[in-house]
From TrEMBL:
Top-level taxon in the UniProt lineage: Eukaryota
UniProt keyword terms in alphabetical order: Pyridoxal phosphate
Name of this chain's protein: Uncharacterized protein
InterPro entries: PyrdxlP-dep_Trfase (IPR015424), PyrdxlP-dep_Trfase_major (IPR015421)
PANTHER family, per database record: HERCYNYLCYSTEINE SULFOXIDE LYASE, L-CYSTEINE DESULFHYDRASE
Amino acid sequence: MPSHMGLEATTFGQGTRDEHFAFDPAYTPLNHGSYGAFPTAIRNHQRALQDRIEARSDPYIRFTIPELLQRSRIGAATLLGAFIDDVVFVPNATTAVNTVLRNLRFIEGDTILYFCTAYGACEKAIHFEAKMEDNVDTKDDIDGMSSVTQGPGRFGDLFKWAATIDQTPYLCVPEAIKFRTDVCGGEDKIRYYCFNLARDGGHSLAKILGTETMQNSEDTLGQCCFTNVRLPLLFNTERRGGLECAEGPDVVKWTMDRALCEFNTWIPGKYYAGAVWVRLSAQIYLGIKDFE
Ligand SMILES: Cc1ncc(COP(=O)(O)O)c(C=O)c1O
């Protein structure tokens, strides 16, 4: 049996990191939520694909890539429980949000609702869209965002020919799903480990800092691979002394810089609701010690 087969969930953490990922040993990757990471097996698969394309570019680009791309769409659609026609590949999350936003038809009086903690690039796209469309309002104080898709077939057609770019990341989807199933033990095992690590790691860090993790009244905010932990900083909300609220963004920047320079990690932060919160991502290559 190859060494990467049959990995048990119990070995998630440092063992998984050492065997399957290519992180710098001195770096603690706590920000999976921003850019993700891929196992070395998938990296090797991608590089082999690139070599094959380079060796016979015309037949690959005309015949093989469209076929492999379709396999990837089927794989992603099955994993997500989506219609194949609704699944297309774009280079990053910002392009995806822009693509959906710019293809929606707004009518007078519509309001675009979004999280007040929205990723900056997406918030800008929302405001740009509202500016382009007359009489469309934006509102940022709710906990959700609606989305609409076009009818079957047409959406996928728009992405059939994305000109000449390196599409190998998209073509790796079936291999990546196979890795998640065969090596990691499936989606449930991955989710179980990551959810628990996010919860326990967040609590552990909050205990060290003497603070708390972010939670809602239904106690459901923690059911994901993230945890948000409050930093022990007092801000001058309601004139109780402490740091000025306007300094919040500078404090966030300073904290993130220090995390990188002194602790060799990157932890995105946000000044929100009168406090600085840091977001830590739990993944199969991390353990509780990484959070502490
Ligand atoms: C929450 C979140 N989403 C997405 C991204 C990355 O966006 P993109 O894939 O468009 O580069 C980041 C990057 O920092 C992020 O923090």
